[in-house]
Amino acid sequence: MNIVRHATTLEMGQAAAQFGAEAIRRAIQERGCANIILATGASQFDMLRTLVQTPEIDWGKVTAFHLDEYIGMPETHPASFRKYLKERFVANVPGLQAFYFVEGDQRDAAEECRRLGKIITPHPIDAAFVGIGENGHLAFNDPPADFEIEDPYIVVKLDEACRKQQLGEGWFETLDDVPSQAISMSIRHIMKSRRLIVTVPDERKAQAVKNTVEGDVSNLCPASILQMHADCGLFLDAASSALLAKK
């Protein structure tokens, strides 16, 4: 794991975007196309803003996959991750080859997982842009996460800490409004990505960062699995890296 610290959240996001853009350009040069995964949330604001403005990326050769979405969430809801990505990414990269969204409001969530799994399986992921939750989750894989399941997409239950994070970030008015289930990319499938770009700002993530970097690899801190990845960049700001003992 390559730990990259920056003084500000903006600098962190910019550096993460450049690290990911390098992987996208390399894949296009080597194979003629690139496949990426995109996350959402407050942690991705500056990274996405920079990524869509990065020159020399032929977006017409890029296929994107959605990391996760709440079950039962309509796209019109302010907290919809589809809405987030369409406004912050898709609208700013005209000519994108394809974007496969998690349709969380489909009637059968298990069938939606199977649909997405069939699509993503033949697409090796070149760059996965993700974050870490306050409870150490990776995507919506809350502790204790399943490190063994091979299915690319799974139905997961959101724990209270995860739901409180969504409330605290301002996506919902009350805790009762936060869904209790989601469709999430599995840990194993995220880890198959050629390069991981992990962007984690804010003091409220500092303990999760410490557990991820300095703790044992454990499904009680799902993001600790990142220690096992061969090409993982962990991008931090001053606040999120404050508890790290290793300087």
What would you note in describing this structure?
The protein is α/β, with parallel strands linked by helices and 247 residues long. It has one domain: Rossmann fold. It is 30% helix and 18% strand. It has 7 helices and 10 strands. The protein has helices spanning 9-31, 45-51, 81-88, 109-120, 160-168, 187-191, 206-214, and strands at residues 2-5, 34-38, 62-66, 68-70, 98-100, 127-130, 153-157, 181-185, 195-200, 232-236. The strands form 2 sheets. A 7-stranded parallel β-sheet has the order 1-10-9-6-2-3-5, with helices on both faces. The protein is globular. The mean pLDDT is 96.
Which terms would index this structure?
single chain, 247 residues, alpha/beta, Rossmann fold, seven-stranded parallel sheet, three-stranded antiparallel sheet, 10 strands, 30% helix, globular
Helices and strands, with pairings:
Blueprint: E1 2-5, H1 9-31, E2 34-38, H2 45-51, E3 62-66, E4 68-70, H3 81-88, E5 98-100, H4 109-120, E6 127-130, E7 153-157, H5 160-168, E8 181-185, H6 187-191, E9 195-200, H7 206-214, E10 232-236
Parallel strand pairs: 1-10, 2-3, 2-6, 3-5, 6-9, 9-10
Antiparallel strand pairs: 4-8, 7-8
Short description:
By secondary structure, this protein is an alpha/beta fold. Helices cover 30% and strands 18% of the residues.
